[in-house]
């Protein structure tokens, strides 16, 4: 197949495009010659370069690589001082970059392939460095030329290094030019001329030399057997073969690790996510809307990696809470694993003993090469757990559910190179007002291998459509007074952060929490709830979300935590005593057995409603919920997006779901026109944050005009336009 027959884009961006599978693999499959100038020389960069060259090499193609040595300050000083021959120093620097540490199966197979190609004269590597009047520097140009047997050329250049970090994590781009496209022919010719000049060492101020010792070292370290020219086919398997490949020999005595059971078939998007994750050297993020199968996708990825490593693998799965760990356990067992369940509970009190035994057995018993631990976030930080993880000699895969939590410093400090393979699962990875924590998560786990949005999930019938009803309530006089006083006190607590941006100090954060609880516990919500839930009093499958807050009556002087009624208690009383509904609380105060019983009665129809606080936010699966009343007015997108997701899981006889969202504003809209500018400005933080949530919920709703009408009314009252209604910081 000619290069002309491929659909080649003019630009590829590493966090948007799958550069390896969309560009390198298809083009190199049909190439006869591959010339590549890269950044620094290393064994990891060679692994990345190898992707796509198997078929090409087997069909008689050739590969020419130009790379630059990474010279330390000491190297440069020694060259300048003339202590040793410069080529000797450069050779030493290059050898340091050739790692001989044990690596994953695919990396070792690829390095073996390259070593064989070098030994057979199919691949040649030359080293480039700049020489300007005796001053040595690195060669940084990054470009490549792919040529087919018909003489067609594709040239590309840009900021992308041939390394896993550049191609997977950092935001990099390459520009692509084809010589059969008239306007681009000159650009291709310029690249060809430049590479020819480099390769033949005739480029001014640039030295390009052969280092036979480097080739000898690569051959000695990595050539172990005949080359596996089909390595790309193995690693980047076809979607239709996925289930077969992942299941493997499910019932074989040799299957000591995980396999997909016969009664589970992954969706195309789940298989695609695993394929991309494999291509990123088993690192990445599954960003999938709540209810779209993150757990099964994660277990499919675990199965693929374990098979690729011959089941020589330790898997650490971490989830935020005990009830999520138990949900994971149910699915893990189905995937041919016997997990060690680790958290502080009487039924799992021997986890330390079981874990230490598994770590020891893995070292000495072939039938114990695989083991899996599933634990809570808290147990993951346990000193004993960390000590045992450090003793594991086999490769480790770390899987973190609801991974946004691990951007916090207390968890982030434990994420290091012990974990060769990494997988983050989250519907909302971006941390609320924590850019540094979010950046760390991307840096550690890698790129998004899938971004399966709520909009796509509804469109593809993986989640239930929904109707959205914003219920407008206002702060009482005493609540508004408290809100404004707290806002005033917070204004005195603004400091500059390390990034130069304004933020609240510790005391300001406490005040912000108090202020958010004033909003969450607004007394008007109870009367509004009575009104909107009354038509549903004979229905089932109802969820009421409460704030972790207290409420207080109009005749009280202040919100005193000593005497206030918890909102959840007031709501339970309304449902049970006033409306005669069967309702149960679902909070952190209920133990595992009580929660399981509540879910069972709810799904059977014996229980009409669940009244919950925050513990339902992450991961709890109760698909039968049809109608939700959200009293908790959170400003954190992660939280309210997850709350919506709880309601949208597919269930029989559930053509759509309904969400009643209690929108809290400082005062009635018809009174805003009489405010002073200062008074109106004090309202803006709450108004904008509520608008941000209404817009997010309303944009995908079946009845979006209902939300839009309210949005327009609020914006008109406060003289805002659409560009001014994004969420704002607490201190504004």
Automatic annotation (TrEMBL):
SUPFAM superfamilies noted in UniProt: P-loop containing nucleoside triphosphate hydrolases (SSF52540)
Domain Helicase ATP-binding: 275-447
The keyword tRNA processing belongs to this UniProt entry's keyword annotation: no
All residue ranges annotated as the Helicase C-terminal domain in the record: 528-692
A GO molecular-function descriptor: DNA binding
Keyword field: ATP-binding, Helicase, Hydrolase, Nucleotide-binding
Record has Iron-sulfur as a keyword: no
InterPro entries: ATP-dep_DNA_Helicase (IPR050615), Helicase/UvrB_N (IPR006935), Helicase_ATP-bd (IPR014001), Helicase_C-like (IPR001650), P-loop_NTPase (IPR027417)
Record Pfam families: Helicase_C, ResIII
PANTHER family to which the protein is assigned, alphabetical: GENERAL TRANSCRIPTION AND DNA REPAIR FACTOR IIH HELICASE SUBUNIT XPB, RAD25/XP-B DNA REPAIR HELICASE
Protein name, per record: Superfamily II DNA or RNA helicase
């Amino acid at each position: 197949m000619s290069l002309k027959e491929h659909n080649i884009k003019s630009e590829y961006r590493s966090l948007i495009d799958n550069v390896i599978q969309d560009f390198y693999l298809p083009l190199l499959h049909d190439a006869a010659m591959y010339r590549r100038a890269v950044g620094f020389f290393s064994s990891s960069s060679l692994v990345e370069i190898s992707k796509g060259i198997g078929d090409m090499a087997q069909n008689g193609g050739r590969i020419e690589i130009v790379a630059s040595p990474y010279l330390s300050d000491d190297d440069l000083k020694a060259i300048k001082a003339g202590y040793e021959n410069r080529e000797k120093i450069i050779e030493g620097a290059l050898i340091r970059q050739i790692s001989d540490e044990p690596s994953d199966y695919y990396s070792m197979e690829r390095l073996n392939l390259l070593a064989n190609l070098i030994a057979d004269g199919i691949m040649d590597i030359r080293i480039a460095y700049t020489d300007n009047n005796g001053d040595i520097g690195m060669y940084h140009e990054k470009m490549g030329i792919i040529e087919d047997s018909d003489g067609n050329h594709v040239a590309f250049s840009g900021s992308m290094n041939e390394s896993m970090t550049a191609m997977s994590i950092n935001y990099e781009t390459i520009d692509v030019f084809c010589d059969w496209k008239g306007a681009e022919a000159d650009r291709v010719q310029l690249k060809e001329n430049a590479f020819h000049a480099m390769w033949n060492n005739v480029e001014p101020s640039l030295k390009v030399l052969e280092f036979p010792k480097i080739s000898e070292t690569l051959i000695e370290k990595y050539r172990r057997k005949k080359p596996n020219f089909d390595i790309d086919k193995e690693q980047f398997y076809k979607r239709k073969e996925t289930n077969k490949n992942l299941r493997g020999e499910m019932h074989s005595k040799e299957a000591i690790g995980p396999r997909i059971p016969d009664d589970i078939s992954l969706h195309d998007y789940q298989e695609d996510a695993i394929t991309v994750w494999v291509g990123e050297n088993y690192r990445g993020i599954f960003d999938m809307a709540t209810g779209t199968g993150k757990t099964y996708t994660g277990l499919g990825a675990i199965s693929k990696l374990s098979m690729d490593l011959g089941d020589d693998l330790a898997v650490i799965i971490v989830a935020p809470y005990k009830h999520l760990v138990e949900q994971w356990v149910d699915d893990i067992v189905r995937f041919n694993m016997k997990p060690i369940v680790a958290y502080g509970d009487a039924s799992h009190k021997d986890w330390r003993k079981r874990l230490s035994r598994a770590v020891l057995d893995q070292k000495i018993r072939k039938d114990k090469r695989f083991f899996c631990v599933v634990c809570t976030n808290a147990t993951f930080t346990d000193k004993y757990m960390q000590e045992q993880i450090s003793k594991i000699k086999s490769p480790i895969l770390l899987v973190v559910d609801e991974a946004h939590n691990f951007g916090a410093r207390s968890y982030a400090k434990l994420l290091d190179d012990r974990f060769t393979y990494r997988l983050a699962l989250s519907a909302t990875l971006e941390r609320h007002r924590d850019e540094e924590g979010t950046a760390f998560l991307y840096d550690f786990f890698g790129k998004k291998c899938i971004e399966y949005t709520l909009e796509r999930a509804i469109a593809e019938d993986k989640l239930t459509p929904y109707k959205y009803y914003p219920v407008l309530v206002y702060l009482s006089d005493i609540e508004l007074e408290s809100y404004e006083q707290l806002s005033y006190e917070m204004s005195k607590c603004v400091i500059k952060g390390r990034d130069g941006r304004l933020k609240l100090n510790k005391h300001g954060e406490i005040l912000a929490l108090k202020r958010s609880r004033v909003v969450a516990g607004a007394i008007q919500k109870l009367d509004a709830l009575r009104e909107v839930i009354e038509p549903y009093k004979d229905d089932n499958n109802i969820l009421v979300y409460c704030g972790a807050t207290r409420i207080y009556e109009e005749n009280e002087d202040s919100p005193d935590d000593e005497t206030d009624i918890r909102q959840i208690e007031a709501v339970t009383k309304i449902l049970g005593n006033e409306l005669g509904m069967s309702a149960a609380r679902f909070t952190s105060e209920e133990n595992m057995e009580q929660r399981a019983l509540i879910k069972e009665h709810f799904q059977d129809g014996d229980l009409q409603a669940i009244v919950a606080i925050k513990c339902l936010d992450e991961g709890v699966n109760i698909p039968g919920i049809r109608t939700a009343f959200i009293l908790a007015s959170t400003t954190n997108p992660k939280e309210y997006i997850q709350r919506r997701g709880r309601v949208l899981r597919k269930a029989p006889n559930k053509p759509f779901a309904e969400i009643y969202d209690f929108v809290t504003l400082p005062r009635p809209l018809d009174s805003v026109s009489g405010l002073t500018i200062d008074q109106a400005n004090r309202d803006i933080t709450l108004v904008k944050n509520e608008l941000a949530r209404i817009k997010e919920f309303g944009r995908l709703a079946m009845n979006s005009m209902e939300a839009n009408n309210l949005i327009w009314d609020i914006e008109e009252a406060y003289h805002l336009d659409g560009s001014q209604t994004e969420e704002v910081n607490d201190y504004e």
